Amino acid sequence: MGPVAIRNQYSHLYGSAKLPVIEEIFYSELEMHPSHRQDLARILSTSTDIWQATEIHDLDLFQSMSEGQEYSYSRPLQGAAKTLTVQKYGRGFSVSDELIKDGKFNLIGDMARKLAKSAKESQEINFMSLFNNGFSGGTETTADGVTIFNSAHTLPSGGTFRNVLSTPADLSVTSLEQMLQDFETQFVGDSGIIYNPAPKILLVNPSNKRKALELIGSDLKADTADNNMNSFKQEGLRVISSPHLTDSDAWFMLAAPSEHGLRVVVREALNTESKSEFDTDSMKFKAKYREVIGATVAYGVFGSAGN
Questions:
Q1: Terminal CA-to-CA distance of the chain, rounded, Å?
Q2: Which of 86, 112, 175, 209 has the largest count of CB atoms under 10 Å?
């Protein structure tokens, strides 16, 4: 009796009809690599090759009024502005006609999986550069022209505020308490308004993940012999650990994406293309996307570079 499974019974894996199968493998692999940036950034779309954000001054605080007194009307003034330019990213692979015809589909499928993983890693690494290069001396800036995590963010009115600890410190009970206090008091606007976004995420390197979980998840206060209630647990912080944070001591606190200025602006979502080459008897498969990552304002994010 001849073999039950023979090549011509699986013709969809070969010839031009194989391409949808490779795409399915690619997108299935993508689903196996969850993205942290989905939780950390506000993801927007644009229909052009640039994306612009413009601030306005805060309005003055309300004043007391006597009966019959006319209202004072504020004229909003433009503040800092920032333009982000979309960048194209891509990668591909090609395989010979002989490789396909000789049934080496496992190799081709593995290439598609590796390409998908490369795409997801590229997006994650690029986004985490906002944190890795966001301290003094780095390249990632907000609309006021200083680095994202800075002690001297400038306001259009001439005032300043900070979104770093006054003294850099490793993650601990003391430093976490200080950052939570700062989160409530340091985000000051032009007219003296204090923005009070709720902290939602504690972002750490994997070397700090267990420490962070103990600090915010224990019933009793961590790192002390006292049986104090752990007030950090009431904050409802979520720990996210990323291996793409290059400084093991650095750690960050973020509000919900709608309340801070970290942006992923997508012009063209990740997609694939494939075709057969007549002259070379080869098949080409590629993936690409167009987007830009950047920061507009420093409100709602706080950081410490550690010791």
A1: 73
A2: 112
Model pTM score: 0.86
Q: Using H for helix, E for strand and C for coil, what is the string for 143-181?
A: CCCCECCCCCEECCCCCEECCECCCCCCCCHHHHHHHHH
Q: Which residues pair with 95 in a beta bridge?
A: 283
From residue 236, how far is each of 37, 53, 137, 233 by CA, in Å?
20, 31, 33, 6
Using one digit for the tens of pLDDT, what is the confidence trace for 73-94? 988 888 889 999 999 999 999 8
Domain count, the chain: 1
117: left (phi over 0), alpha (psi -120 to 50) or beta: alpha
How distant is the alpha carbon of residue 28 from its chain centre?
22
Distance CA 78, CA 61 (A): 18
Average pLDDT over residues 268-276: 91
Q: Is residue 147 part of a domain?
A: yes
* Domain CATH for 243: 3.30.2320
**What number of residues does the chain have?**
307
Residue 292 · residue 122 · CB < 8 Å: no
Domain presence at residue 283: no
